[in-house]
């Protein structure tokens, strides 16, 4: 009897301790204790600023996706609020983004608005499962050439869809295929409306120049105000939100549960998986960017859970997919945000705009929104990253080129599937190359002595990190975790590559990010002991020139000698570091 009572007590304790949501604790809960008035003022200013930045973007994404402009705003209001309250990042701002424009437009073309709402909710459920199970970490297994390829492709597609509105071309139905769309533009170039084109060009100039003249004024807001004022004052006969959509309704959205069709689950599942993967990748990437700015650490599981809940709820107000927005998150930080309260204020600002200023939205010219999206497409394209990819070996270039081409000429779902499949084969190929069999000779033993750490004296101004095994996509986060707090590191960091058997474009990107972070903090990175494939890969990518040829050493013995040479001319990282060095020498 006592045994049974003991077992029942243990079972009850286990059930009481079971909390499937323990790893999804919102960041807001940990930041609210000790929340002060000064923090509230900073968050209010940041929230108002990013709310005004998000207004034209939300409308532009709605229009470009094939839905109404208010659908984009509703997405930013409801999705942004839910992610702020439930998310795992301190300053993340969520809403509609350019990455989904092409996917949403394609889903609507094939399955209609009801199909889009189902896809969004299905993607939300997938994201919640990823957050609850911790499987969200699987998104790190998407290699950089794939991410860059579909990012470049999406940027090209977004820009191509805005030519009609930017130039005021008289085309009834714009083809969904890229080359057919380009052909239609060329065929109808004679219908160009010079007033719409002039308005688009002026809006583009304002977006680019306004931040230089008034750094605190968002260029998109300046263009929106100027374009709307020009339409009203000059009575310009150009297409506006009013002429195409009948304006934007005042007030908050109506809640309505979308119709659910079980027969569409399997046909829509590939699109839902694509939306979920893209939302996970973009939101976690945005959270990592936020961490690099704030010095904080986000909770990936909580972030994915919040994104999932947002994507389940947003379709009930007629919204489109939600994810973390890197540009708005960066704006939020620059405006002084400290906690998720700023993102909550951003959503409330957009709701207030809907209540007060909606009647004026009908005068917003579509040429101006097209200019906004052209700038978004350029900024999201990461065009500077293409040149480093093209300097790598044929395998990485092929993965990038195929993903890019398929994104443009086929669709994003196929592009991601093919890109990941190729990357998996490439991963197997590179891991297979790391296996070697050789005879141990006296020469081998002697050559290994300069690499051995056991007989070396490591001075206090040096910290050595080592990478053991292949440093490929899926493993690079380990380096980011180990170096998250740079205050623990002295003046010189030596990265020992003796046991790193292979590296790819994602690993190279991680090394570049580490080198940049160390350089900004006044520290120096040295690499030593790279084997054949990593050494050849780094040389092809011109990373040797990037870090300095003198900072790439053959073994740890040479790296310590180089560190001593650097430290002799080192001016110091501050009194705390100097005190640590003196203490270590005592």
Question: Helix fraction?
Answer: 55-70%
Strand content: under 5%
Largest sheet: 4 strands, parallel
Tally the structural domains.
2
Shape verdict: globular
| Overall mean pLDDT | 81
Question: Helical element count?
Answer: 26
Number of strands: 6
- Give the neighbour order of strands across the main sheet: 3-4-5-6
Give an overview of the whole structure.
This protein is mainly α. It folds into two domains: 22-141 and 193-384, no CATH class; 443-585, Transcription Regulator spoIIAA (2-Layer Sandwich), CATH 3.30.750.24. It contains 26 helices and six strands. The chain has a four-stranded parallel β-sheet with strand order 3-4-5-6. α21 links the parallel β3 (462-466) and β4. α5 (101-133) crosses α13. The longest helix has 33 residues, at 101-133. The protein is globular. The termini are far apart. Residues 11-20 and 574-586 have low confidence and may be disordered.
How is this fold's topology laid out?
Elements: H1 2-17, H2 27-31, H3 37-64, H4 69-86, E1 94-95, H5 101-133, H6 144-161, H7 163-167, H8 178-187, H9 194-213, H10 219-234, H11 241-245, H12 265-294, H13 300-313, E2 323-324, H14 326-334, H15 341-356, H16 366-380, H17 386-390, H18 394-409, H19 412-433, H20 442-448, E3 462-466, H21 477-482, E4 492-496, H22 505-520, E5 524-528, H23 532-540, H24 543-547, E6 552-553, H25 556-568, H26 575-585
Parallel strand pairs: 3-4, 4-5, 5-6
Antiparallel strand pairs: 1-2
């Amino acid at each position: 009897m006592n045994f049974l009572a003991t077992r029942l007590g243990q079972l009850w304790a286990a059930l009481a301790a079971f909390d499937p949501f323990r790893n999804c604790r919102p960041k807001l809960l940990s930041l609210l204790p000790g929340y002060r008035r000064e923090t509230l003022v900073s968050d209010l200013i940041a929230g108002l600023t990013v709310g005004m930045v998000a207004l034209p973007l939300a409308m532009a994404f709605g229009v470009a996706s094939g839905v109404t402009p208010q659908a984009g705003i509703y997405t930013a209001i409801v999705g942004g609020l839910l992610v702020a309250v439930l998310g795992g990042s301190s300053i993340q701002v969520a809403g509609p983004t350019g990455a989904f424009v092409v996917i949403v437009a394609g889903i609507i073309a094939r399955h209609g608005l009801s199909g889009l709402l189902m896809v969004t909710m299905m993607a939300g459920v997938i994201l919640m499962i990823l957050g609850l199970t911790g499987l969200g970490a699987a998104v790190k297994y998407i290699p950089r050439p794939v991410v860059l390829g579909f990012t470049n492709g999406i940027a090209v597609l977004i820009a191509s869809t805005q030519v009609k509105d930017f130039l005021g071309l008289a085309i009834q139905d714009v083809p969904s295929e890229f080359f057919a769309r380009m052909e239609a533009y060329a065929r109808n170039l004679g219908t160009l409306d010079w007033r719409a084109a002039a308005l688009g060009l002026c809006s583009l100039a304002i977006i680019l120049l306004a931040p230089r003249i008034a750094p605190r004024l968002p260029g998109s807001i300046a263009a929106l105000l100027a374009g709307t004022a020009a339409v009203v004052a000059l009575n310009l006969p150009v297409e506006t939100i009013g002429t195409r959509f009948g304006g934007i309704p005042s007030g908050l959205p109506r809640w309505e549960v979308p119709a659910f069709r079980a027969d569409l689950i399997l046909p829509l599942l590939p699109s839902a998986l694509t939306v979920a993967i893209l939302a996970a990748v973009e939101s976690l990437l945005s959270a990592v960017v936020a961490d690099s700015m704030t010095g904080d650490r986000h909770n990936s599981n909580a972030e994915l859970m919040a994104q999932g809940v947002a994507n389940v709820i947003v379709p009930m107000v007629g919204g489109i997919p939600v994810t973390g927005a890197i540009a708005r998150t960066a704006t939020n930080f620059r405006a002084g945000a400290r906690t998720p309260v700023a993102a909550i204020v951003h959503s409330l600002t957009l709701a207030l705009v809907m209540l007060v200023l909606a009647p004026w939205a009908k005068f917003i010219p579509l040429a101006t929104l097209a200019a906004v999206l052209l700038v978004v497409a350029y900024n999201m394209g990461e065009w500077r990253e293409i040149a480093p990819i093209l300097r790598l070996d044929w395998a990485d270039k092929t993965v990038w080129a195929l993903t890019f081409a398929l994104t443009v000429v086929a669709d994003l779902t196929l592009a991601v599937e093919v890109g990941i499949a190729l990357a998996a084969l490439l991963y197997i190929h590179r891991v297979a190359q790391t296996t070697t069999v050789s005879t141990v000779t006296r020469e081998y033993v002697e050559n290994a002595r300069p690499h051995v750490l056991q007989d070396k004296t490591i001075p206090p101004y040096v910290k050595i990190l080592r990478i053991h095994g292949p440093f490929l996509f899926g493993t690079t986060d380990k380096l980011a975790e180990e170096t998250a707090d740079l205050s623990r590191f002295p003046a010189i960091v030596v990265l020992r590559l003796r046991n790193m058997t292979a590296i790819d474009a994602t690993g190279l990107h991680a090394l570049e990010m580490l080198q940049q972070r160390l350089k900004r903090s006044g520290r120096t990175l040295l690499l030593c002991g790279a084997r054949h494939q990593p050494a050849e890969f780094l040389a092809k990518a011109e990373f040797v020139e990037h870090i300095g040829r003198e900072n790439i050493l053959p073994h740890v013995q040479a790296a310590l000698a180089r560190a001593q040479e650097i430290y002799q001319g080192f001016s110091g990282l501050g009194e705390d570091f100097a005190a640590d060095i003196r203490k270590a020498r005592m």
